[in-house]
């Protein structure tokens, strides 16, 4: 039995070669490997619901129950009234955009290892599907210093300071 997330990733490595990631900026059409038909997407094709992702107000006295319900029914939710200043959220969005606008080969310098947690790569759940997911991700656990140094060798300290 695993005791930490790191242990779980070590015992269940992801085997998706990062070298196969497309250059999202240069593609002119969607490759077949990314085209999902209804039979490829059983989870969502079975639902004809008009429901949308739950919004949860942190000032709601029943917030814990609402989070629990959203997790068991949706697996995700969006928080409102969290108290995080809009200016900070805008800055984080700018930093995130700066990272994902980098060329793929540059982002691969901070690639997550097969059994790693932090770094650039595809979603860890991608290996459970027959089709590829049109996504990329960057996970930060702890300090981003090492990964940011690989991405922005001359400006990594500025990005780390802004990120923290």
From TrEMBL:
UniProt keywords, alphabetically: Iron, Metal-binding
InterPro entries: DIOX_N (IPR026992), IPNS-like_sf (IPR027443), Iron_ascorbate_oxido_reductase (IPR050231)
GO molecular function list: metal ion binding
Superkingdom assignment: Eukaryota
Regions crossing the membrane: none
Residue ranges of every copy of the Non-haem dioxygenase N-terminal domain listed in the record: 53-153
Keyword set includes Endoplasmic reticulum: no
Protein name, per record: Non-haem dioxygenase N-terminal domain-containing protein
Natural source organism: Thlaspi arvense (Field penny-cress)
